[in-house]
Write a structure and sequence with these properties.
DNA_methylase_N6_adenine_CS, Adenine specific DNA methylase Mod, restriction system, Rossmann fold
Length: 621
């Protein structure tokens, strides 16, 4: 029996006047009370100073001055389950502590890292890094008006619709019906569509760069980790805004960054909204240095936006080939009423003395039954027990076919997922491509038909492919040029009825459509030209275009800090390549929608794209 200290009776009596601010029923809201103490809430302190108990135990007189020992009071509130005479106040809790306080009780303990409040805007691709673009990712200007401009809605160009009739022009878009594919920086694309899709996305799955040194984050080690964390933080924060209240996000990661990502996601989505760390065991493994074990698994962190609102119910499969085979093999018995049933063992796997009992003289299992005598008698009365032909054999339970829902798909997926080595789905793991079966399980677990799926690290379009085959709506975002070489052609094949991946399992016959569009490049176009330049002469050509513009591109936005007179071409190719990248204003990578009616910008946009933008952002004019 626990006896709470007198302080709690005193505090409850004093705090009733605050209503439910500090009380949950008859219990103190300890964390809320401690927050107010730390903030020196005047109304709270005035009430506490009236208590003789507080005056006696927590106000100390020093040199004629009275000092309120707020830390001691906070400690007494947080750690109430101990006697003053006990040797330890930690007898009921386990956790990290600093200076006598658990870290989870402190509102000041957070994951901090350099540039945490910065913005990573550039492409973060391996191609860019290999070409020397290794120090231009952080948004250099932090002032609010610059960030507002950076995150403002962007102009869309090259918009088109793909369906079973091929490619066609598009001027209208319905977010409640149309699927959307965007080429461009994923952070800026997300901010462009956030108003239209706020709280409308049911499932987010992403497979971001892992920051292992072999992908796009091979920077100076001093900044490597903080750069990656800033990159992820920027994107996860906007992703959360797009989730429905009952929505889920799944982030795939490897062992190098999983722990950091978990803490970061705890801070963004809330620790209470973490559901599972799913272990995905791949076939084979990735090569490691000789002093490390071979990696054969990755992890998928699953969070929900609000665990009290999440929509999660078992999904049963009754008509697929595996279930029908299971039924044919197991439901082979017929009772006196002509009902088919299968026998299900009711023997306990673990010895429990209260489950060792005799029932009608039949042999008691070695470790007893898995149910109590009362349950056994209930099943017996309902005709749900299958008695053997010998007293030396065990009783079984009848599972009737006419009551059988099928295999519970969700509950069969534990937090360890193993790729079936007998699967006919071929997956190129060296390129990072994930099997359709994995994405199918994720989407199926937490969404229904017609709900919206988002993947803003689209890659080869596996997520969008599966979503289309499962009759979900989707959004995909990808910056790399292979979106037009791999991703879009793959989705065209899906529309045509391709039979790879999960097609046969879901009886995919083709159909569907999606709208493709691109963020209109401004400085991004010049940035890519600089990155892909191979010689000093090519750099000079790009530099002249940056100053003068072309028929299809306006002059570049140059950073106001730049002193163009200081450019010295004798410095050589690498130095000047790096310098030109620094000259570009990273807040102007793409044209903002607010510029669409500017005469100099309007002439660069087709009439179809102009109408598409107006309808997309304003619902038509």
């Amino acid at each position: 029996m626990k006896i709470k200290p007198k302080i709690f009776d005193e505090l409850r009596s004093a705090l009733y006047s605050f209503g439910d601010k500090y009380l949950v029923g008859e219990e103190l809201n300890r964390s809320k009370l401690c927050d107010s103490l730390r903030n020196y809430d005047e109304s709270l302190l005035e009430k506490l100073f009236q208590l003789d108990f507080i005056k006696q135990h927590f106000i100390k007189e020093v040199a004629g001055q009275k000092l309120f020992q707020i830390e001691q009071l906070e400690e007494a509130i947080l750690y109430n389950d101990y006697w003053d005479t006990s040797y330890t106040k930690y007898e009921n809790r386990i956790g990290l502590a600093s200076k006598g306080k658990f870290l989870e009780d402190s509102q000041d303990v957070v994951l901090d890292f350099p540039f945490k409040d910065g913005v990573l805007t550039a492409s973060m691709t391996k191609e860019d890094n290999e070409e020397g673009y290794d120090d231009g990712f952080l948004n250099e200007v932090i002032e609010k008006d610059e960030i507002d401009r950076l995150f403002d809605k962007k102009i869309f160009v090259n918009s088109k619709r793909y369906d079973e009739n091929g490619e066609s022009a598009v001027t209208e878009f319905d977010e409640d019906k149309d699927n959307l594919i965007i080429k461009g920086n994923n952070l800026l694309a997300l901010h462009s569509i956030k108003e239209k899709y706020a709280e409308k996305v049911k499932v987010i799955y992403i497979d971001p760069p892992y920051n292992t040194g072999s992908d796009s984050f091979a920077y100076n080690d001093k900044f490597n980790q903080s750069t990656w964390l800033t990159f992820m933080k920027n994107r996860l924060e906007i992703a959360r805004e797009m989730l429905t209240e009952d929505g889920s996000i799944f982030v795939q990661i490897d062992s190098f960054q999983e722990s950091y990502l978990k803490v970061l996601m705890d801070s963004i989505f809330g620790r209470e909204n973490f559901r599972n760390k799913i272990t995905w065991k791949r076939r084979g493994g990735s090569a490691n240095p000789s002093n490390q074990l071979n990696n054969v698994a990755e992890w998928i962190l699953w969070y929900v936006k609000d665990n009290t609102q999440m929509d999660y119910s078992p999904v049963y499969s009754l008509n697929d080939d595996n279930t029908q085979k299971y039924i044919k093999e197991r439901f082979v018995n017929i009772d006196e009423n002509g009902r088919k049933y299968m026998k299900s063992p009711i023997q306990s796997p673990n010895y429990r003395e209260n489950l060792i009992y005799d029932y009608k003289g039949y042999k008691t299992p070695k470790k007893g039954y898995s149910v109590s005598r009362n349950v056994m008698e209930k099943w017996d009365k309902e005709g749900r027990l299958a008695f053997p032909d010998s007293k030396e054999k065990n009783i079984n339970r009848k599972i009737f076919l006419d009551e059988y829902k099928g295999q519970p798909i969700n509950s069969l997926w534990t937090d360890i997922y193993v790729i079936n080595p007998m699967s006919n789905e071929r997956v190129d793991f060296s390129s990072g491509q994930k099997p359709e079966a994995l994405i199918k399980r994720i989407i199926n677990m937490v969404s229904q038909e017609d709900e919206l799926v988002l993947d803003f690290f689209m890659g080869s379009a596996t997520t969008q492919t599966v979503a289309m085959k499962m009759n979900r709506r989707f959004i995909g975002i990808e910056q790399m040029d292979y979106i037009n070489e791999v991703s879009v052609p793959r989705l065209q094949k899906v529309i045509a009825g391709e039979q790879g991946g999960i097609s046969k399992e879901v009886n995919w016959q083709g159909g569907g459509s999606f709208v493709y569009t691109e963020l209109m490049p401004k400085n991004m176009g010049y940035l890519q030209d600089i990155i892909h330049s191979k010689t000093l002469d090519e750099l000079k050509v790009v530099y002249n275009r940056m100053l003068e513009g072309t028929d299809t591109m306006k002059p570049a936005d140059i950073s106001f800090r730049a002193d163009l007179d200081k450019i010295d071409w004798l410095e050589g190719f690498n130095e000047n390549k790096r310098l030109l990248i620094k000259l570009l204003d990273k807040n102007g990578l793409y044209y903002n929608y607010s510029e669409i009616d500017d005469a100099n910008v309007r002439e660069l946009i087709s009439d179809e794209d102009y109408r598409f933008n107006k309808q997309f952002y304003k619902g038509g004019e």
